[in-house]
Amino acid sequence: MHTNKESSFFLILLIFISIPLFLSAGKNIHVIIPKPQKVLSGNGTFLMTKQTRYLSDTSLAQNAIAYLQNHLKQNAGYLLKRGSDSKVNTIHFHYDPKKIKKSEAYRLHIEKNKISIKARDKAGFFYAVVSLMQLMDPAIWGQKGSGRKQKNWTIPSCTIEDYPRFRWRGMMLDTSRNFFSKDYVKKFIDRMAQHKLNRFHWHLTDDEGWRLEIKRYPLLTKVGAKRGPGTKLPFSTYPALRGQKNKVQSGYYTQNDIREIVAYAKARAIEILPEIDIPGHAKAAIVAYPKLLQDPKDKSSYRSVQKVANNTINPGMESSYVFLDNVIAEVSRLFPFGYIHLGGDEIPKGAWKRSPAVHRLMQKKGLKNAKEVQNYFFTRLDRILAKHKRKMIAWQEVMQGKAKLRQNNIFMAWKSKKAGVRMIKKHRNVIMTPVQYLYFDQQYSRSKKEPGHTWSTPVSTQKTYAFNPGNSSYIRGVQACLWTETALNEKIADYLVWPRALALSEVAWTAQKKRHWKEFQKRASGEGLKRLKAQGVHYRPVVPIR
Ligand code: TNX
Predict the structure, then answer these.
(1) Sign of CA pseudo-dihedral 366, 371, 374, 380
(2) Three-class DSSP category at 61
């Protein structure tokens, strides 16, 4: 039994012991998402203030510096001045290709009066700054209108040596099923960049809408970007069932919008992969240009998995190839990335079956069945892409049978991880996007209250985290997909993506043996969500739920 005196002594002792703990709680260095490959703690803290200066010996650090400055301007109310000597507390940006061997890698060293950042490319500098900002108070991520300014920022001393596991760390946004504004697309990209995701796959066309201005074919957007009563595109799938049935929905990106967004992404180390989904999923293009894309004598009648009637471009018509060549020419001019995604998913059974043009083609080229017609179609498109100096990315279906496509193309395995492994055995480059782990359009858990699709299994954050893509050199990386049939607005889209995308970032970036769900869960539900909150993301509040 303790006396009263004794217990108050213990209480006071406890308070004294916990004060330093409490103080250091705000200086935790294990807060970064995705988790870096190596973090070593140091002594003391760096204090960023209006007096802090920066120095740089390379233009490769420009984007990174601008990114930090934008956030300081917004949330601290000042910009850092360029320094001339290193006496005051300073952030140094060094180009150091000898020490930093890998692309996208960086070294971030924080001491009491100095922060030193080393990298060999733009992405490396950008990621160093993102890590630095994640070590600051989450208020640094505040967006326009977030109000309060914070003058001083304490940053814990530490050394981080970091590089990505995969080159391809992607996320897809479907802007066809439901249109998303230019501003939302930018937000989507910005949030990716903050978690070191570097490939934005932009699903621009589908049955429900063609969202990309093509100068040569103005009806693609004039006719093909509108759905609903009185238009040529009825509400064929969602939101016909769940959303407003009596309102015309429309929207597309002008070529100027595209250029603006490409530059915005580039400044954040993100490449944009545009997708023109063909020959299936093409109803919007077909209602705009039926004469070019369909055989007038075709008597086939079929429906896609999503129940859209006759939605497939005809591979027997020469005009289809002329049209696609012209579209690809404009797409190549807009998107500097070396790849274009041509879809190729879910060609409906029975398409072209009674098309005389396809029958003539089969006879002329000795094609025996629909699969061989599909392969003929994609071989020709591969040649068109080559002419425009682009490589192909496509959904896994394109690799069926004896597809003769260039070896440097990449295929996305979406039906399962096994599908990816099968393609690897055929020596094909693969990006893993299996629905069971990485389809963010699926519900988090089975409940009527949860938005999202139900056709596959639920995808909890833990499930996403558990995905191990594998180790073959054919695996270019991983990607999550947000299809938007059920994402009727930005709030639902945010909810479906976050916090699952935190888990994705770590699957894509961090070495497999350094990933532990329990530890991640703490980081994600703590600092991870605080940062999202500071930005006004409508994330799903609970990380742990299965
Ligand atoms: C399948 S994944 C599709 C999409 C749908 C999605 C819904 C793929 C290549 N095709 O058209 O939106 O399922 O989850």
Answers:
(1) negative
(2) helix
For all residues of the chain together, what is the average pLDDT? Answer: 92
Residue pair 188/487 in contact by the 8 Å Cβ criterion: no
Kindly report the protein residue whose alpha carbon is nearest to atom 10 of ligand 1: 345
Q: How many CB atoms lie within 10 A of CB 1?
A: 4
Please state, as a whole number, how many other Cβ atoms lie within 10 Å of the Cβ of residue 468. 13
Spatial strand order in the sheet of 53-56: 38-48, 153-162, 106-110, 114-119, 90-95, 53-56, 81-82
Which domains are present in the chain? 29-162 (3.30.379.10), 168-534 (3.20.20.80)
What local confidence, expressed as pLDDT, does residue 186 receive? Answer: 98
Determine whether the shortest distance from the Cβ of 257 to ligand 1 is under 6 A.
Answer: no
CA of 98 to the centre of ligand 1 (A): 45
CA distances from 451 to 109, 446, 481, 488 (A): 43, 10, 15, 10
170-217: pLDDT as tens digits: 999 999 999 999 999 999 999 999 999 999 999 999 999 999 999 999
Catalytic residue (choose from 111, 161, 260, 346): 346
